[in-house]
Amino acid sequence: MTMSVIARARSAIRKDIRSNRKALTPDEQHTASRAAASHVLDCLPHAQRVALYLENDGELGTRPLIEALWAKGCETYLPVLHPFAEGHLLFIHYEADTQMTANIYGIPEPKLSVQRLCPADQLDAIITPLVAFDSTGNRLGMGGGFYDRTLAHLPDRVKVIGLAHDCQRLPALPVEAWDVPLPMIVTPSRIYRFGSEPNQ
């Protein structure tokens, strides 16, 4: 496949999968987010600092997971677009009363504060959104490459988990050289581990 063919295929997949997940009803979304939260908690028994996201565009919701992490005494962090390094993310401490602002994509993020910043390599886990994933752990994002850049240089101790609806799984994805596959992806119905551990 040429680069242009790969790009067209990825664009078509994004359109189809985004449409599918946005078609889910509020009740289906709520049930899915609670089920996925339970799976994620099983994967993070000792985590103290967890970065995740606030759902947008039909993404699997994280509110039940955030509340469960708070109940365990965990600190939660949200991604913020880096103000100087274009295409990169920072992670800012997120609490119930955190002041939020819309970024250039209209997505709410915490107001940037150096005092509330946690370097990515000091997190215990990063829960990443995605548009689609396949049977080998390849992840298709929105196309900005923000998470690929963030995940590319993380130490092994930081657990990375993709979060998705079951309808976002495909047998195979067209991949680019810069794509970073995920070691684990959680959906409402199961935990996918890509490596030596069996799926659940």
Provide an overview of this structure.
- There is one protein chain.
- The chain has 200 residues and is α/β, with parallel strands linked by helices.
- It has a single domain (3-193), classed as NagB/RpiA/CoA transferase-like (Rossmann fold).
- The protein is 26% helix and 20% strand.
- The chain is built from 4 helices and 11 strands, in the order ααβαβββββββαβββ.
- It has helices spanning 3-22, 26-43, 63-71, 146-151; strands at residues 49-51, 75-81, 89-94, 100-102, 108-110, 125-128, 132-133, 139-140, 159-163, 184-186, 191-193.
- The strands form 3 sheets. A 7-stranded mixed beta sheet has the order 3-2-1-6-9-10-11. A two-stranded antiparallel ribbon has the order 4-5.
- The chain is globular, with a radius of gyration of 16 Å.
- The mean pLDDT is 91.
- Its EC number is 6.3.3.2.
Key attributes of the depicted protein:
seven-stranded mixed sheet; 200 residues; Rossmann fold
